[in-house]
Amino acid sequence: MSTHAKRERLLLADLLETAGPDAPTLCEGWTTRDLAAHVVVRERRPDAAGGILIKQLAPRLDRVMAEYTEKPYEELIQLIRTGPPRFSPFSLKPVDEASNIVEFYVHTEDVRRAQPDWSPRELDPVFQDALWSRLERTARLMGRGVPTGLVLRRPDGQTAVAHRGTPVVTVTGEPSELVLFSYGRQSAAKVDLDGDENAIAKLHETKQLGI
């Protein structure tokens, strides 16, 4: 596993363990147990994980998720720590980095920022650049359902166009915060929005950008 993805994986496992199975998360309707089951199913049950993106497969995903949420919580955490089985594509380092760096970062913050006493953590510039690189490649996908023009901007001025249109809303923040914003965690992301007030209001009403 790559350095970034592995670090976030282990941090997520530690946070889930500390929080316990019934703690809230930023994922609406999910406790930490539900989130842990999701992570395990995504990596270990490709026959069901397709339901995350394909509606026709959602019933199967729901059944498998229900099975995994019944497993001992400690077992779920251990499965997250040990990583995917050898036959999984996620066990390949390039796939792990491409698929999991954002996945584990977002879910780590789902646990952290659902707690009342959370505070932003310092992320090294290399990790921020890695998150930005992923966001640049997926911005158009994430912004496809946005009702306004949308530009994501780093403090240094680098931008990624998530959706072309008018009026335009510019969202400024560190790559880590822009990732959270783009993955539907608008209320928890530390970003600044600039643009038409009505457009900003519509953007806030968009429950989840892209996927």
Automatic annotation (TrEMBL):
<dbReference type="InterPro" id="IPR017517">
    <property type="entry name" value="Maleyloyr_isom"/>
</dbReference>
<protein>
    <submittedName>
        <fullName>TIGR03085 family metal-binding protein</fullName>
    </submittedName>
</protein>
<dbReference type="Pfam" id="PF11716">
    <property type="entry name" value="MDMPI_N"/>
</dbReference>
<feature type="domain" description="Mycothiol-dependent maleylpyruvate isomerase metal-binding">
    <location>
        <begin position="12"/>
        <end position="45"/>
    </location>
</feature>
<dbReference type="InterPro" id="IPR024344">
    <property type="entry name" value="MDMPI_metal-binding"/>
</dbReference>
<dbReference type="InterPro" id="IPR017519">
    <property type="entry name" value="CHP03085"/>
</dbReference>
<dbReference type="InterPro" id="IPR034660">
    <property type="entry name" value="DinB/YfiT-like"/>
</dbReference>
